[in-house]
Write a structure and sequence with these properties.
Helices cover about 85% and strands about 0% of the residues. By secondary structure, the chain is an all-alpha fold. The chain has one domain.
């Protein structure tokens, strides 16, 4: 399983390095620069508003399906159509709720029009994740890796034609950005549906009401978890836009930094997308999951520290490089959100492990408590510190989440992480901070300092023993490096 994890993780990283950085920094950043922070802040706030209730589109079905198929692949023949029908009904309920709350919140005509398109996009995006859960649940990891970048690849092609091809000969509007997303999602859904049919064999297209209700009932704990997590990860942008006089601008400032965090999270999210079915299968067989936990944690921790510390030290340079508009404290917001990436990465490993184990009760306790805490922190900090307050609230919330998830993993699953390994992690962090700060004081361009710091941190991972050259050499010599499904 460790071999399968590493080989497919490498494939995922290569594919995502080819596609997603260009999407975030080449397309999204250009769109915000073209339309301005106010217009993009409106889009970002509306997007966050739709994401708050996104769970109604899924009700935990995707995670439940992934985990269930990993343990019993034959379930796809009985569950597929029932899940599709349930998702369509949930989409109607989702749309009604979002628009009812939008009207109560005072959104105007243009905002409602944008919201309608974003609601459609959320349904399509959620349906794509469900289709992919069938592929990964059936252990076709290579195929799932290819599909993971499909929608973004299509969007890049279409956006490039509009932005640089100037085919409309007009000033770019934020609505065009949303239209392109809609078209790309539709094309991706059609392709993924065909792939599922080809990979799963003969599916049953008979609707069974009893099975549908059983699926909903068993998915509810997953649904509650995603909903609560959505509150403490996305509600900040909505509060920024709604309660501040310059809310659109502040949401735009927050979006500048959140985009970079989101780009890093795209790579970090590759871990749970691979690990959930793997953890579920290992735990289902009663085998020891500790080796895979330690391996995955080491890799994601090195990546998180490299990204966070480098971006924290060079925050001003990065913001000035990417954006035309600097609103004074944009770089400070980014510095805080860069550190937020560390607990987020840790949560991806231990939260996924608890999900695979079916420990939804504990996860929901954590998420419920943190949702309340995060909303309270945002309501206190945002009026006083605006976007900085939202970033600080996120750092506090995600850090507490990481500590609690590690605690419950150790308590429930008895994950054996030695004190020596913990000391290595702490030494690695300390040396990374010192070396990056020292390199930033050396004469030279900041970009070379940034690259040098990142390389030094990677070397420190080897020096401190987080990465073993001996184990890596053994892995390379023992594997064919042919990525198998």
């Amino acid at each position: 399983m460790k071999k399968k994890f590493i080989t497919n993780l490498i494939l995922l990283i290569i594919l995502n390095l080819l596609i997603k950085p260009f999407w975030v920094f080449g397309i999204e950043t250009n769109v915000q620069n073209m339309v301005g922070s106010g217009e993009y802040g409106l889009y970002f706030s509306l997007l966050s508003f739709t994401l708050l209730f996104n769970i109604l589109l899924d009700m935990g079905i995707t995670n439940y399906n992934n985990r269930s198929l990993a343990q019993d692949p034959s379930l796809i023949k009985r569950h597929f159509l029932n899940m599709v029908v349930v998702r369509l009904l949930l989409a109607i309920l989702y749309g009604i709720l979002v628009f009812a709350l939008a009207l109560l919140s005072g959104y105007d005509g243009r905002q409602l029009n944008l919201l309608a398109l974003l609601v459609l996009n959320q349904f399509l995006a959620a349906f794509m994740l469900y289709l992919r859960s069938n592929i990964s649940g059936l252990q076709f990891y290579t195929t799932d890796s290819m599909l993971s970048v499909l929608d973004k690849a299509i969007m890049i092609i279409l956006c490039s034609l509009v932005i640089w091809g100037n085919i409309f000969h007009e000033q770019f509007r934020i609505e065009w950005f949303v239209y392109i997303q809609s078209i790309s999602y539709v094309l991706a859904v059609v392709i993924m549906f065909i792939v599922v049919l080809l990979k799963s064999g003969r599916l049953s297209f008979t609707f069974d009401q009893a099975i549908a209700f059983k699926i909903i009932k068993q998915s509810l704990p997953f649904a509650l978890l995603v909903f609560l997590m959505g509150i403490y990860t996305r509600f900040d942008a909505v509060i920024l836009e709604r309660i501040l006089p310059d809310g659109k601008i502040q949401a735009g400032i927050y979006a500048q930094s959140f985009r970079i965090l989101d780009a890093a999270s795209m790579f970090a999210y590759l871990f749970p997308s691979l690990l959930l079915p793997m953890f579920a299968r290992i735990l289902g067989k009663g085998e020891d999951v500790t080796p895979l936990v330690r391996l995955s944690f080491s890799l994601i921790f090195i990546f998180a520290i490299t990204f966070s510390i480098s971006c924290f030290v060079f925050n001003e340079h990065i913001i000035k490089l990417l954006y035309h508009q600097d609103h004074g404290h944009s770089s400070s917001v980014f510095a805080i959100l860069a550190i937020v990436f560390i607990p987020i990465s840790i949560n991806y490993i231990f939260g996924t492990l608890l999900t695979a184990n079916g420990s939804l009760k504990q996860l929901n306790y954590i998420a419920g408590s943190l949702a309340i805490l995060n909303v309270a922190l945002n309501l206190i900090l945002i009026p006083a510190y605006k976007a900085l307050g939202a970033a600080a609230a996120s750092l506090i919330t995600q850090s507490i989440a990481a500590v609690l998830q590690i605690y419950y993993c150790n308590k429930i699953l008895k994950i054996r992480i030695s004190n020596i390994f913990i000391i290595k992690c702490l030494v690695f962090v300390l040396l990374s901070v010192i070396s990056t700060w020292g390199i930033s004081k050396i004469n030279g361009t900041w970009l070379w300092q940034f690259i040098s710091a990142a390389l030094v941190i990677c070397i420190l991972a080897i020096v401190t023993g987080l990465v073993s050259i001996k184990e890596a050499r053994r892995f390379v010599t023992q594997q064919s490096w042919a990525v198998k499904e």
